[in-house]
Specification:
This is (salmon louse) hypothetical protein. Keywords: Membrane, Transmembrane, Transmembrane helix. Helix content is 77%, strand content 0%. The protein has one domain. Helix 1 (13-44) packs across helix 7 (151-177), helix 4 (91-109) runs antiparallel to helix 5 (113-136) and helix 7 packs across helix 8. The model has no long low-confidence stretch (mean pLDDT 84). It has helices spanning 13-44, 63-69, 72-82, 91-109, 113-136, 139-148, 151-177, 180-192, 195-223. By secondary structure, it is mainly alpha-helical. The radius of gyration is 19 Å and the shape is globular.
């Protein structure tokens, strides 16, 4: 599709979304193989904290989690020298560290236009997510939420808020997985979809987030 992006103009909305989904899965499998093949050698050499293979990206809905659990080696390499422990609760420092991190990622992956767009979209999404987390920790916000919504309602509200970010992630990764022109085509196609198709897409993304949140809840329950 990267070589002949014009085919994306002729596909149905569901095939279009399927191509994007499978592009992500194939890309993830490449990393699973890379980490899976090299990890035994790292452990044999005494590297006890050698990164594991990435989590399935189909169950990751937030940008911060994607960076933590996908290319773990790159995340660890960037995290330690840039994100200082004492400043991790500072919203301004989080933005500055994200800006520095994605500037490095841009140079690391190659200073191409498509990588620049992908890096900027990542920076925007991570910054929005950090702002949302900062707001959610405020006492007044928690009091308002507890006074107006039940625990299930709060979870639904959280998933609704995360849905646009997941769609944004979906679009940014098209640039990285397939290319510049396909990324432009995907944005154009999604914006020009019928309301019915857009609503179904949003509902599917929302349902995926609900499933992922439930998996996270069960994992936390097992740990306790």
């Amino acid at each position: 599709m990267g070589q002949k992006p014009e085919y994306l103009l002729k596909t149905s909305p569901w095939l279009l979304c399927g191509i994007a989904y499978m592009s992500g899965q194939f890309f993830m499998l490449k990393y699973v193989v890379f980490y899976g093949m090299t990890r035994p050698f790292g452990l044999e050499d005494g590297i006890d904290d050698y990164p594991e293979h990435p989590k399935c990206i189909a169950r990751i809905y937030s940008y911060s989690a994607m960076w933590r659990h996908f290319d773990r080696g790159l995340y660890w390499f960037i995290r330690e020298p840039i994100i200082r422990e004492e400043y991790r609760n500072s919203l301004l420092w989080k933005f500055i560290s994200s800006l520095i991190s994605f500037s490095f990622v841009f140079i690391y992956h190659g200073t191409y236009k498509v990588i620049f767009i992908w890096s900027i979209m990542n920076l925007i999404a991570v910054s929005i997510e950090s702002l949302g987390k900062w707001i959610s920790k405020s006492v007044k916000y928690r009091q308002l939420l507890d006074a107006t919504l039940s625990p299930r309602g709060q979870r639904r509200f959280y998933c609704i808020c995360m849905t646009p970010l997941l769609l944004f992630s979906f679009l940014s990764n098209i640039y990285f997985f397939i290319g510049l022109k396909p990324g432009h085509i995907y944005i154009s196609r999604i914006l020009s979809m019928s309301i019915k198709h857009q609503m179904v897409l949003v509902f599917v993304l929302y349902s995926g987030i609900q499933s992922s949140v439930e998996l996270e809840r069960k994992e936390m329950f097992k740990l306790t």
